[in-house]
Design goal:
This protein is mostly helical. Helices cover about 60% and strands about 10% of the residues. The protein contains 5 helices and 2 strands. It has a two-stranded antiparallel ribbon with strand order 1-2. A hairpin with a 5-residue loop joins strand 1 (about 70-75) and strand 2. Keywords: DNA-binding, Transcription, Transcription regulation. This is Winged helix-turn-helix transcriptional regulator. Pfam families: HxlR.
Length: about 120
């Protein structure tokens, strides 16, 4: 799904929501930021395989979509902290039942592989 879909007003609500969380890292970043704010370096250490470039791009998209707040502290060196906005927390809460369903699906897959 392209970024332009996140701005399209002529889509159903599910498509509008998926457009905002589409991508490899957005849901895991939402999940991590639920617990507390993080600095970018902390997020990269928690997510091996996530490059600095992709992290920056993803966080900027999430900020543009109103999901995360970026706070820059005027100290040397500059300190940037990302946290969920109220809108981001609302999305995270809305995704909780979908996450539960996903875990049940994984349990079923594991069970079927054990039986085979």
């Amino acid at each position: 799904m392209t970024r332009s879909r996140a701005q399209d007003l002529n889509v159903c609500g599910v498509t509008a929501a998926i457009a905002v969380i589409d991508g490899k890292w957005k849901t895991i970043l939402l999940w991590l930021l639920e617990s507390h704010p993080y600095r970018p370096g902390e997020l990269r250490r928690r997510l091996p395989g996530l490059t600095e470039k992709v992290l920056t791009q993803t966080l900027r998209e999430m900020e543009a979509d109103g999901l995360v707040h970026r706070e820059v502290h005027d100290v040397r060196p500059l300190k940037t902290v990302y946290s969920l906005t109220a809108f981001g927390r609302e999305l995270s809460e809305a995704l909780a039942p979908l996450s539960d369903w996903g875990h049940r699906r994984l349990d079923r897959l594991a069970e079927s592989q054990r039986v085979s």
